[in-house]
Please model this.
Amino acid sequence: MAAAEVPVPSEHFTQIKEQKLKPGDPEKEEGGVQRMETQEGAVEAEAEPCQLQEIRVPVESDRRILTLQAVHLTSQEVHLQGLGWLSVPHTEEFPVMMPQAESLLPLPSVLWLEQEPQPSLQHCVAISIPEALFPPEEVELMHFHLLRDSVQVAEEDQKLTPNLGESTALTKFEDNEKDQPLPEGGPDEEGKERFLFVEETPEDEGKDELVVTISHLSLEEQRDQPAPKQTGVPEAETTEPPQKPKGKPRTFHCEACQFSSSKSSTFTRHMKIHSDERPHLCHLCLKAFRTVTLLRNHVNTHTGTRPYKCGDCDMAFVTSGERVRHRRYKHTHEKPFRCSMCKYASVEASKLKRHIRSHTGERPFQCCQCAYASKDTYKLKRHMRTHSGEKPYECPTCHARFTQSGTMKIHVAQKHGENVPKHECPHCATIIARKSDLRVHLRNLHTHSPVEVKCRYCPAGFHERYALIQHQRTHKNEKKFKCKQCDYSCKQERCLTAHVRTHTGEKPFSCLDCNKHFRQKQLLTVHLRKYHDPTFVPVVHLCLKCGKSFSRWSNLQRHKKKCDPEHEKLATSKKGKPELRRQSIEEGPAWGNEEAWCPGELTLSHGGENRARSESLDEGLTCEMIFDMMDK
DNA sequence: CGACCATGCGCCCTCTGCTGGCTGTTC
DNA sequence: AGAACAGCCAGCAGAGGGCGCATGGTCG
Model:
């Protein structure tokens, strides 16, 4: 506030205020000089007590209100405070004669406590009015026509004419004027405080001019003023008829926010929100409130008192408005706020406002840590968890934590819940746990593609991926890869490639350690593992009947047909390889059962005899056998 | 001045849908 | 073995519903 920016005022102000607050001061109760108790009270909370009672707020365009207090300063005080008197040059436009007798008196003094630091800020003015010349009772209305560099004074009340005298034009004070003498005894030795309304409004459009109206409150306005209860000063009565600026209905503008009101009582109530004064204490928690109504509503939250019960359900509310809204949401479905761009309608205007952002793309809530901006505060708050790592939601069963409640809810339902609903694809009967994944499934597998995709194995083409996959599965057991040089055929292309090398003699895979060559990469890999990897632990398949071990599961199955025909009958219905165990090379005996080994296929020992076996590794095995072995 | 009502803001919630990492299966 | 694939899963954001509460307008 501008008042806070004013150099430290003299104690004089405080004294004036204290005097003013004295109840029953007859002079203050007279009409003509009115006070704005509540406004002052509001300001007092924020400003220093000795500062000018000045409230300001830009309201609408250029319209502002200054609430001033008439103060009386000696010239010395003015200088001490870095202030100055306004110069009062003569103006031809409003020639007013100053009575000689009044030469001892100062001209109506308007102090510019500060010049406008910003265009948006208004003047901060104090007015000193010599009561000997024009008692406050007589000062009813003045209009100051303010130009950028000059101020013209026009009196609307003829009573002021002789007193305003030569001060018909005011300019910002000049330093050379500040030594202007004050009248003997100074103005208002009693230090009486006067309150005037100064309303600053734009003059006619197009003119760089403002009209500042300084007036006392009319009788009607006095009644609108906050009750003098605080100070014990009763409302003043006046015999003067109410005076209002012609054609200008009074508007009260809050200096602390954008609020304005034509009713002083509303304005007064509003000003309380800028005050820390909370006289109504909750006896249960000692929380303080500004009004009895707020306190009552608060106490109701303690006691659970909800006097407004919904007639259609068990809900009850503290206020009637909550009940009305609840009924609209739950029962009447009345949605008065409709979007002009779509069919959306809402119960609350704020919801419509939020909805419209989805049309405009407006994102007023900017993340301070990344480029994200959201359309409402909650989304931003939720988003901030991505930066903080906060996971406020915990699964009650497994204590896993989640960033959003919905995520946890899905987790609980699908991990710990019973009869979890599944989602079945309408096209292929695939069951998928999550609807969103079903959507992905539909998008990937059942979306019609404009481009026909060919089968890998035949000329058939499909526009849907799912149909293609189903079709290709029909080729699954076909030995569709046939050798052109013999009758060999196989299911996998890589097997055919390896087979063809038996015709060409090509062995492109070489062991760098022993210079052996292999037709298939997999054979080289097996070779390296068996012969050159000291950490290699072979897989052994044991016959539980006789204890023989086999390196290959298929050999074990063949063995069991002879060794245990009954077991074999049972085993045919089972899958898996239950007799599998791993055995290290050092275990020797079990591993050394050569009879159990498929002759000439694999050996674990090193040396010359293994070369022959190693050779047969490449020569004797079919492609499928090798891959089967690798897989196992 | 309090009471009542309307309004607006903020908060929290649910539902929804997309995304990308993970994992098991298939080829 | 390894690539491709499809479902699982958590993370995250969009949209909107619902309510608590503060505040303003009006009236008695």
Notes: Chain A has a mean pLDDT of 54. The two ends of chain A are 84 Å apart (CA to CA).
